[in-house]
Write a structure and sequence with these properties.
By secondary structure, this protein is α/β, with parallel strands linked by helices. The protein has two domains: about 170 residues, 3-Layer(aba) Sandwich (Rossmann fold); about 200 residues, Dehydroquinate synthase-like - alpha domain (Dehydroquinate synthase-like, alpha domain). It is about 50% helix and about 10% strand. It contains 15 helices and eight strands. The strands form two sheets. A six-stranded parallel sheet has the order 1-8-5-4-2-3, sandwiched between helices. A two-stranded antiparallel ribbon has the order 6-7. The radius of gyration is 20 Å and the shape is globular. The structure holds 5,6-dihydroxy-NADP and zinc ion. The site of zinc ion has 6 residues, from helix 7.
């Protein structure tokens, strides 16, 4: 097991009606905020009106910036930075999913940075103070509600890149599972695919003696799968929604990374896909994760067989670990199919036209992606081919 530091300062305010606390919680930090949100789901669900009234009850001054798109764009981030500078705002409330939260984080990182905020996504060492961000989460998926990460798409070339800094962890996140009842089935499933991917990125490690975090990963995966299937039957099952919301946070708050180095190649490859084709991140992952697994499984048959056995209850064939490994990958694909998620590029009408371009862009700023197995242009192309 590797040495590690672990610190996660985000306060979690979890459960029914917790959004009612937003005014009082914000008041502990400030009297003025940028309220940041997306394309309208919070208005149709009624959450927007509630949040405004809870904030007004506490006399909090609100400046609004809406219009965050899934796969959030750099241009809106720049707009947000200007608004915060002009209005002396040092606190951003993000109401929405990973896209809204990441857009808020990028604004928070950019306000006190003299250069172009995109610099922070190329050279990812942020070393200046960021504004405070708080969230009301409406879709469990990206884990951005407690993560230090932030992913933005630059429309100039459609580069989707991430950055991260401990000070980008939200100061608090309100997580009411009831707010996720309005999610369309597809978005629920995409979120589930994303949180599964966050665990798998950590699970496939070259580190030995990580028994505890292996078991925590496997247990979280099992809880997600069981409760996802419950939501297939009843999307208004509060307890299943709560388990999924909690899992999405655990999957990405780095507690499952303690003592180990994860892989992350599939996320980097997926960012090329959603950067260019603007598909949901979770859909890109349900296509690419099985493809990546098929490409790398021989690197550690024991680990892949363990995954098959402990997560999908597949008997280990001690004389043929390859067979067990492939059954595990197939079981994951079948689960994604049960969730109505795509598992091939053709399922989202993407052909092989731009796979060379995406493979090149993947390593435009780095030597390789991935730690479990190093992936360069040539290997990425093979993974895209397996996903066609
Ligand atoms: O824009 P609105 O109208 O709010 O609609 C959203 C959006 O269309 C809708 N939605 C959200 N909550 C809803 C709802 N619709 C009905 N009822 C609700 N309660 O869902 C759509 C998707 O929202 P989005 O925020 O894009 O989803 P998600 O949370 O999956 O975020 C995806 C983004 O997060 C990044 C992804 O790359 C992608 O850009 N990630 C961020 C990470 C991080 N910061 O740590 C890590 C992840 O690996 C990921 O890369
Ligand atoms: Zn993700």
């Amino acid at each position: 097991m590797r040495n590690f530091n672990y610190k996660n300062d985000t306060e979690i305010i979890f459960g029914k009606n917790t959004e009612e606390k937003i005014g009082k919680e914000i008041k502990k930090y400030t009297n003025k905020i940028l309220l940041h949100y997306g394309g309208g789901s919070i208005k149709s669900s009624g959450l927007y009106d509630k949040v405004i009234s809870y904030l007004k009850n506490e006399n909090i001054e609100i400046v609004e910036l809406s219009g965050v798109k899934p796969n959030p764009r750099l241009s809106l981030v720049k707009e947000g930075i200007e608004i915060c500078r002009k209005n002396n705002i040092d606190f951003i409330l993000a109401v929405g999913g990973g896209s809204v939260i990441d857009s808020a984080k990028a604004i928070a990182a950019g306000v006190n940075y003299d250069g172009d905020v995109w610099d922070l996504f190329i050279d990812t060492s942020i070393n200046h103070p960021c504004l405070n961000v708080a969230t009301i989460l409406t879709i469990p998926a990206a884990g951005s509600e407690t993560s230090s990460g932030c992913v933005i798409t630059n429309e100039d070339g459609w580069y989707k890149r991430s950055t991260g800094h401990p000070s980008l962890r939200p100061v608090f996140s309100i997580m009411n599972p009831e707010l996720t009842f309005t999610l369309p089935k597809y978005q629920t499933s995409c979120g589930i695919s994303d949180m599964i991917a966050h665990i798998l990125e950590r699970y496939f490690t070259n580190e030995k003696h990580v028994d505890l975090t292996d078991r925590l990963c496997e247990g979280t995966l099992k809880a997600i799968i069981e409760n996802a299937l419950r939501l297939n039957i009843d999307p208004n099952d509060y307890n299943a929604r709560a388990e999924i919301m909690l899992s999405g946070m655990i999957a990405h708050n780095n507690s499952l990374s303690m003592g180990r180095i994860g892989d992350w190649a599939t996320h980097d490859i997926e960012h090329e896909l959603s950067g260019i084709y603007d598909i949901a991140h979770g859909a890109g992952l349900s296509i690419l994760f099985p493809a990546w697994m098929k490409y790398v499984y021989k690197h550690d048959l024991n680990r892949f067989a363990q995954f098959a056995n402990r997560v999908f209850n597949i008997d280990i064939n001690i004389n043929n670990l390859e067979e067990t490994s492939l059954k595990g990958i197939e079981a994951l694909e079948n689960f994604f199919t049960d969730m109505d998620l795509p598992t091939r590029l053709s399922h989202v009408d993407i052909d092989d036209n731009r796979i060379e371009e995406m493979s090149k862009k993947l390593v435009a700023y780095c030597d390789h992606v991935g730690n479990f197995v190093e992936i360069r242009e040539k290997e990425a192309l093979e993974i895209f081919k397996l996903a066609l």
